[in-house]
């Protein structure tokens, strides 16, 4: 428990390890070791919850209810149960491989993650980190997400369900994206608009992670080779899901869906 409290304190806001001594009564080396051990333990024992779509709360009956809730909020698609997007997390400029880590779109050195968000406010899948220069479509291919969707994304009767992404993603049976033509018809524009309105939910989740765990938003502390940046972001994603299980979120309120209990999510 002490280790978890240290971790939450560390991630809640940027601070020096020495600033934690008065609260926890341990030396800087002890605090550093405990933080590393707890971070690794959480990721090792629960990281699969962000990697595998074969979870009890993602059974076909639940996916169908997600699709229904999204459609009721005005989405044109009636078979869309979640949203996929990539995010760039700025890091301290690395001493080596700067071009690989540089993201030209955001104009920062960073690492990228791909996230699938369900309308109950939970992160269903989180892939990363990958190099900042990597394109979203390339990250999708590397993640193997399409294979998982083909296996698990369907209604109880077997009809396929999909997730929705931005124009960077290819069109597949289980992955839909906006119309991209230069001149869209009125119906196509209406489709894009309706899906864009509900898709903003995925951006709320990215914002929630940084709101709860501001340490991740302080790039001077995020140094490749010195800190397990990717593991820290994944652990914060798990902790953010735990908070949603307890208190709900803006996303779950928007779609009027209840997240699973903490016991159901962590299967304890």
Automatic annotation (TrEMBL):
Keywords for the protein's UniProt record, in alphabetical order: Metal-binding
Cofactor(s) named in the record: a divalent metal cation
Segments forming domain DDE Tnp4: 84-241
Gene Ontology molecular function: any one: metal ion binding
InterPro entries for this protein: HARBI1_dom (IPR027806)
One Pfam family matching this protein: DDE_Tnp_4
Protein name: DDE Tnp4 domain-containing protein
Native source species: Pocillopora meandrina
């Amino acid at each position: 428990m002490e280790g978890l409290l240290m971790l939450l304190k560390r991630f809640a806001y940027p601070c020096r390890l020495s600033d934690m001594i008065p609260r926890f009564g341990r030396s800087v080396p002890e605090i550093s070791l405990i933080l590393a051990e707890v971070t690794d333990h959480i990721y090792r024992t629960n990281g699969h919850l962000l990697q595998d779509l074969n979870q009890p709360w993602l059974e076909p009956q639940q996916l169908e209810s997600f699709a229904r809730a999204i459609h009721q909020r005005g989405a044109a698609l009636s078979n869309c149960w979640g949203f996929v997007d990539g995010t760039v997390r700025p890091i301290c400029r690395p001493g080596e491989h700067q071009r690989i880590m540089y993201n030209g779109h955001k104009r920062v050195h960073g690492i990228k993650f791909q996230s699938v968000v369900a309308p109950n406010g939970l992160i269903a899948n989180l892939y990363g980190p990958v190099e900042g220069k990597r394109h979203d479509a390339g990250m999708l291919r590397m993640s193997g997400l399409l294979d998982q969707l083909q296996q698990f994304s369907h209604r109880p009767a077997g009809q396929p369900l999909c997730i929705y992404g931005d124009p960077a993603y290819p069109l597949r049976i289980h992955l839909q994206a906006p119309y991209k033509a230069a001149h869209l018809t009125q119906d196509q524009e209406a489709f894009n608009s309706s899906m864009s309105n509900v898709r903003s939910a995925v951006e709320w989740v990215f914002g929630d992670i940084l709101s709860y765990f501001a340490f991740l938003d302080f790039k001077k502390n995020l140094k490749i080779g010195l800190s397990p940046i990717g593991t820290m972001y994944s652990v914060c994603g798990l902790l953010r899901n735990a908070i949603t299980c307890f208190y709900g979120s803006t996303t779950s309120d928007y779609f009027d869906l209840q997240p699973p209990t903490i016991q159901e999510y962590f299967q304890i």
